[in-house]
Amino acid sequence: MAGRDKLKILIVDDSEMNRSILADMLGDEYDILEAEDGVQAVGILSRKSSELALVLLDIVMPRLDGFGVLAAMNQNGWITDVPVIMVSAESGSKQVERAYELGVTDFIMRPFDALIVRRRVVNTILLYAKQKRLIGMVEDQIYEKEHQSTLMIDILSHVVEFRNGESGLHILHVRTLTDLLLGFLTAKTDKYQLSPGEISMISTASALHDIGKIAIDDAILNKPGKLTNEEFAVMKTHTTVGAEMLADAVPDYISQEELARMRESAAAGEKPSAARQGTGGELVWKAYEICRWHHERWDGRGYPDGLRGDQIPIAAQVVALADVYDALTSTRVYKPPFSHETAVEMILDGQCGAFNPLLLECLRDNSEQIRTALQGDVAEELRQRNLRTISDEALRGEGGAVSQRTLRLLDYERMKYHFFAAMSEEVQFEYTAASDMVTLSSYGSKLLGLEEIFMDPKNNRGLIKLMGEEGIETVVGKARSTSPDKPDSTTELVLHLPEEDRWFRVITRTVWSGDTPPKYMGLLGKAIDIHNEKLKLHELEKKASLDPLTGLLNRASAREQIEDRMLIRPEGHFALAEIDIDNFKSINDRLGHIFGDRVLQELAARMKHSVRSSDICCRAGGEEFFIFLDYNTEIERTVERIHRSLCFELEGQKVTVSMGVALGTDVGLSYEALYRGADLALYRAKNTGKNKFCFFNQAMLEKGEII
Amino acid sequence: MTLRECYDALEGSYDEVVSRLRSERLIQKFVLKFLDDGSFALLEASMASGSREEAFRAAHTIKGMCQNLSFTRLGNTADEVTEALRNSWPDNAGELMEKIRRDYELTAGAIRRFREEQGL
């Protein structure tokens, strides 16, 4: 592609001048499309909505006004992809409100100010472009995350946040702090033997520490004041509930027996068995530990199990500390945030629970590093937060996620296909080889008297009755002998419809797979009624065989028919009479060609009248005609009668003819022989005074009367 | 006659239009274009035939153009006609038509003189 394509802007305004002012203001940076009313605008949108960067829309217009266009844009979902700036002299606040409700991004009031127009247009386009890019980014993220298993964790933990009404950063802070503390801890002691992989796993699992809270009644969970004893008892259950949820939700990862065993070994201060390490089960197990025991205390006074000291898994110990720290430094409904220093002091002071002294040392020794690390996190976290909000929308199917749009488009295509298939008076069909199944359009099914869907077409009685086994064989055979490059084939055949037999043209496109060699997957096709077309063709063929002036057969087609006739009935008595108008040249010269043509037409009409319809009348060229007769007896009287009827008077002009007749019995059953014989006889008639008829006899040949 | 004098003659605001459109070339182009616009003819026709909605749209279009070009006098009258036609057929339709016709002639006349004198 050469250069960058200009962004397209659609200007919709019934005043040409207004359109042109706007177009001029926007200048050459954009590709401007114009519509002079709402109907035109909807037309352009339906064809190009995906290409448009912006619509500038007037309100008051004939046919369909601006609100009508907005309604159509909403109905078709274009409004989510194409921003609209409303242009108007209307400043009524109801109008403005209604426009915003219908998804308008901005307003430009008349009179236009060039700078404002340009600025608004640029801003709106940028805003939309950014959103579109973000949606793209989020989709990539989601895709990426589906392939890591952290998506589930993110969603679940986010659900908890949502329910808790806590700061969205809480989960992230806990995760970061857990990671930091574990790092410091392993640097300080090798007592816990944590690998970097395990640390990362514990940090990830930390996000689920409060997942049990989703089972806690809202009224308790988000109660602003102090909890009663009963309420606190309920609140405490979030540890055990969360742990059971994990154990139940992922039975593939961890069996109940293993869980029980792990619980025992954890209580005995053992690490989980090596067999569990490095599998998904370990992550779930870590999350389980954290959920269940992140409210245990080093001094054994925590809940739910009252574990003490290193009975509490290290993962839960660290998350408990991180959780408390973040709670102190965040705003809660019941308190303002404490500073980092105060929070650390309160924890070290034992005001907020009892912790592993080693961990407290880690906190104290690395206080400054922790402070900066968490602060540095914020910008990054905010970005992620932003992303997450959008991804949430995407997951809920809101916010115009592209996947939704694609689905909608597919849906639309499907609907369109069905609509047109139903509306078009066409027989459309589809054959799927894998299922050996035929699907017919509903019109097709009605017309052909077949089911809309049927199996095993080659043995389907209805189809065989319709096309004949041979017909099916022909169509399928042609379709299968196509190639992926040229997949189409055409067959013309008669279909035996319930009412009548009609000619159809069956066009198929074979569906070949992408394999090498390509496999026959089935075919798509339609059958077109070409019966009338065929009839017309016959008509045309007939026309081509006729002499245009007189409507008689021309020589070539007459000869064909004569030969056919003699071939079919070689025992018949045939005669060929050649007819020539006497002095036709002189009639033409004296009275003109138009009169001459009328003489020819009159003669032709008389010829047809004087013979049976099964006889063949022909204009062989110029003023020369012939008649092919199938006679029984008394050919002479027949010829005499014909001759008499072919002599007539037209507008005072006397017209006579000369005729030469050859009989099959005399010359043999060949067109050539009959014609030559008739010609000789005609020659005789002409030479012996005209206005008469002569029969061929052998003497003519002997006398050498050959032209 | 300069463009500013033309604006004075049709009782518009040249300073205002310059501050918005920022290009004398463009202003001149659109001022001349005003003569080709069919909205006034449409207004006359639809007023004569009593077709209110069409008349309303035509008056509305004239108003919009006048606002864009800062044709203050005609714009005000067009606004008055637009509002009078917005919801029902006005009793003083004839009077209104006469008024807007007079202002339209004033405006169009000034532009035509400007065009002739500029030899455009």
Key structural traits:
heterodimer, A: 707 residues, alpha/beta, Hypothetical protein af1432, Beta-Lactamase, 4 domains, six-stranded antiparallel beta sheet, five-stranded parallel beta sheet, 28 helices, 18 strands, elongated, B: 120 residues, mainly alpha, Four Helix Bundle (Hemerythrin (Met), subunit A), 80% helix
Report on this model:
The complex is a heterodimer of chains A (707) and B (120). Chain A is an alpha/beta fold and 707 residues long. Chain A folds into four domains: 7-143, 3-Layer(aba) Sandwich (Rossmann fold), CATH 3.40.50.2300; 150-378, Hypothetical protein af1432 (Orthogonal Bundle); 425-535, PAS domain (Beta-Lactamase), CATH 3.30.450.20; 545-702, 2-Layer Sandwich (Alpha-Beta Plaits), CATH 3.30.70. In chain A, 53% of the residues lie in helices and 15% in strands. Chain A contains 28 helices and 18 strands. Chain A has a six-stranded antiparallel beta sheet, sandwiched between helices. A five-stranded parallel beta sheet of chain A has the order 2-1-3-4-5, with helices on both faces. Chain A has a five-stranded mixed beta sheet with strand order 13-14-12-17-18, sandwiched between helices. In chain A, helix 7 (170-188) crosses helix 16 (357-365). The longest helix of chain A is centred in the N-terminal third of the chain and has 34 residues, at 114-147. Chain A is elongated, with a radius of gyration of 48 Å. The two termini of chain A are 77 Å apart. Chain B is an all-alpha fold and 120 residues long. Chain B has one domain: Four Helix Bundle (Hemerythrin (Met), subunit A), CATH 1.20.120.160. Helices cover 80% and strands 0% of the residues of chain B. Chain B has helices at residues 3-9, 14-21, 24-34, 39-49, 52-69, 72-86, 93-118. In chain B, helix 4 packs antiparallel against helix 5 and helix 5 (52-69) runs antiparallel to helix 6. The two termini of chain B are 12 Å apart. The mean pLDDT of chain B is 91.
